[in-house]
Design brief:
- By secondary structure, this protein is mostly helical.
- The protein has 2 domains: about 30 residues; about 210 residues, MetI-like (MetI-like fold).
- The protein has 10 helices and no strands.
Length: about 250
């Protein structure tokens, strides 16, 4: 029953969005080349599906995103576990993190392009930077906030370092770490498109720039819609993975 209600909400939400889009198209004074209707965007999407170009761009973008996002999670979680456990070291490292964290990943793009050239690497590096800090800080906070009772019980059962960090601390801290991973997903996906706009010759971000340069606003809007739907699918996939991990550790699914 809950799933039926959820589907109903999704359908109504999308119908409302498309209706508003159509109303704005009809009532606005913009030329069709500047602001296409939902129908024109749909036709452009169908054309991209027929010629296969959209799948090429999606595949390229997903590859870059997977490499950058997963590597950022692995590095940030491992480093966060250590810094959260050894708080004395974190006190020295934290000022540097707080200095670098507010800097937009795109601010590094000129250096990244100079160092790595044009291609996959600049977008991957941008995604890595975008995802790294949210996961790192949430992991440090989660480890620091683990209930001391868990540690006392572990020591009573003879669990020593480093096993206590992987077998006790990490599972206990995972729900909060997962929040950081979720936050990083949206941030990294946004900066994937931004990175591909300036540092790539393929991918969804590049397609947006290419469509803009060729005044193909219907293709541009269709690509934007595809980016949004892929973001929803990635978020849903991440939720499924989180539930399975929590279930395997005896958490609430």
């Amino acid at each position: 029953m809950k799933k039926i209600v959820a589907v109903k909400h999704v359908i109504v939400s999308f119908i409302t969005l498309i209706s508003i889009w159509q109303i704005v198209y009809v009532t606005s004074h913009f030329n069709e080349a500047l602001f296409p209707s939902p129908l024109h965007a749909w036709k452009a999407l169908v054309q991209m599906v027929i010629d296969g170009s959209i799948f090429v761009h999606i595949g390229t973008s997903m590859y870059r995103f997977a490499v950058g996002y997963i590597s950022a999670i692995v590095v940030a979680v491992l480093l966060g576990l250590l810094l959260g456990w050894f708080t004395g070291i974190f006190n020295y490292v934290n000022p540097i993190i707080q200095l670098l964290r507010p800097i937009s990943p795109m601010a590094w793009m000129p250096f990244i392009v100079l160092w790595f050239g044009i291609g996959d690497v600049p977008a991957i590096v941008i995604i890595f930077i975008a995802a790294f800090f949210p996961v790192l800080l949430s992991t440090v906070s989660a480890v620091s906030g683990v209930n001391p009772i868990y540690l006392k019980v572990s020591k009573n059962f003879g669990v020593g370092q480093p096993h206590i960090l992987w077998k006790v601390v990490f599972p206990a801290a995972f729900p909060q770490i997962a929040n950081g991973i979720h936050l990083a997903l949206g941030t990294a996906w946004v900066f994937l498109v931004a990175g591909e706009m300036t540092g790539a010759q393929s991918g969804l971000g590049y397609q947006i720039i290419d469509a803009r340069n060729n005044l193909e606003s219907d293709t541009l809007l269709a690509t934007i819609v595809v980016i949004g739907f892929l973001g929803i699918l990635l978020d849903a996939l991440l939720k499924v993975i989180e539930k399975r991990v929590l279930r395997s550790w005896g958490g609430v699914a």
